[in-house]
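queue> pop job 88
queue> type: inverse folding (structure -> sequence)
queue> payload:
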């Protein structure tokens, strides 16, 4: 007995996920979803109207930016955040790095250290660390997601159950108080949430442009103590919801009165 086809709303959500995973041709998508090409065109037009995709000749592209484009945005802020995060890491620790451009910059600042173990699902971090013998680099294996170059899947979740890092550093496309980390796919939100709970200390790396922003529809709840490392100097005024757990990049003070040594601010 054949399975019923999903309704229009469910199909469009699944279609958006397929485009974000790299499928963009109308003929390919029509075959994948078992509908006509005209139906796919209408669905893509609806998604484009909502700002989720950009229509191209014969298909669509995700509006999610490439890693290179992301890395160039607010580059100085990301580097300052990465340096601040690197200063928290002590010799001999096991560190878990999420995929992302800011975590990739953190990997660059850790590359010349000796005696660190770095576990990551991010291609950016792998590139930065692969040539350094002083780093014990552990790559979480799974399916590579484009365009943000994150390694995801059930195999990643299974591996995370076998490690207990000293510190976890998570990237973010958006951070919203009460919701958590905004993610471009459901699969990525599940992996981020598992990473959040894997380690002894958890940190979110997010420049000012990510605070209180929700560009996507998937969430990794921040349902444990964590520290937010950001470059926003007036975060306690502009975003008071984060004030109790913030480390400011580029300075020695921590908003909310917590000690600047990676301890939790609650």
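queue> result:
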């Amino acid at each position: 007995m054949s399975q019923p086809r999903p309704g229009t709303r469910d199909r469009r959500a699944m279609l958006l996920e397929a485009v974000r995973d790299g499928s963009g041709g109308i003929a390919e998508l029509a075959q994948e979803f078992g509908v006509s090409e005209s139906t796919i065109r209408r669905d893509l037009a609806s998604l484009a109207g909502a700002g989720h995709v950009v229509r191209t000749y014969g298909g669509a592209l995700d509006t999610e930016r490439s890693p290179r484009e992301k890395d160039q945005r607010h580059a100085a802020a990301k580097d300052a955040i990465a340096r601040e995060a690197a200063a928290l890491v002590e010799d001999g620790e096991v560190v878990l790095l999420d995929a992302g451009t800011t975590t990739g910059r953190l990997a660059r600042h850790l590359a010349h250290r000796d005696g660190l173990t770095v576990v990551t699902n991010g291609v950016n971090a792998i590139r930065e660390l692969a040539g350094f013998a002083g780093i014990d680099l552990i790559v979480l294996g799974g399916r590579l997601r484009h365009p943000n170059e994150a390694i995801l899947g059930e195999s990643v979740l299974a591996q995370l159950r076998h490690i207990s890092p000293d510190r976890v550093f998570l990237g973010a496309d958006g951070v919203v108080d009460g919701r958590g980390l905004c993610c471009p796919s459901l699969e990525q939100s599940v992996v981020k949430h598992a990473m959040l709970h894997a380690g002894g200390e958890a940190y979110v790396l997010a420049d000012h442009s990510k605070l209180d922003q929700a560009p996507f529809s998937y969430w990794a709840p921040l349902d444990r103590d964590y520290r937010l490392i950001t470059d926003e100097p007036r975060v306690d005024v502009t975003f008071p919801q984060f004030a109790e757990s913030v480390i400011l990049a580029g300075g020695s003070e921590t908003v909310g009165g917590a000690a600047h040594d990676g301890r939790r601010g609650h």
